[in-house]
Write the structure tokens for this entry.
Amino acid sequence: MPFEVPELLSHYLLPLLIAVPLAIVVIVISRRRGDDDEVATRAPRPPAAPPAAAAAPVPATPPPPTFQPTQPVKSNDPAHLLLVDDSAVVRAKLGKLFEGAGYRITLAKDGVEALEALAAGQHFAVLVTDLEMPNKDGFELIAAVQGDMATENLPIIAITGHDELHTRVHEIQGLYGLFKKPWNDRELLKRVETLAAMRH
């Protein structure tokens, strides 16, 4: 005898057989939709950064700046000479000669002016003096310079145009040269240069 489903069960079984697969289909479809919605609502991923360009070479570190003073550095001042002669022509010649060689000069017409210049506190490298002068001659000037502790080491060169004065000059101690007028410019410059280098 064939298996018969009770009538009451058949009323429920048929709709159940239809509803269950239908429910499964609905669930599967809804899940897929949910996944799609979730993907849609996610923040978009930022685009991948382009490949970095080759790094530029780093320049070599510059050397530290050298010290530069705000004021230019002064070279040593030229040596200062005291030139003494009562003749304006001789003073002009001596002045031109030594200024042309790069020296600073102070001119005096006799021993009095020369001692005033020395008393003013100026530093002289060499004293070049005539011997025969009014007021205070070269011998008196030399004696005063050598007798003063402030100037006793000042190199002195004598210039004279009189042969008879040579004997008196040799009696003076501490002279660094005796030149007869007219003098030889080259020799006088060389002697002064040597003495100035020692003194300056």
Q: What stands out?
A: Residues 65-75 have pLDDT under 50 and may be disordered. Residues 40 and 139 are 119 Å apart (CA to CA). Residues 80-199 form a domain with the Rossmann fold fold (CATH 3.40.50.2300). Strands lie at 80-84, 104-108, 126-130, 156-160, 175-180.
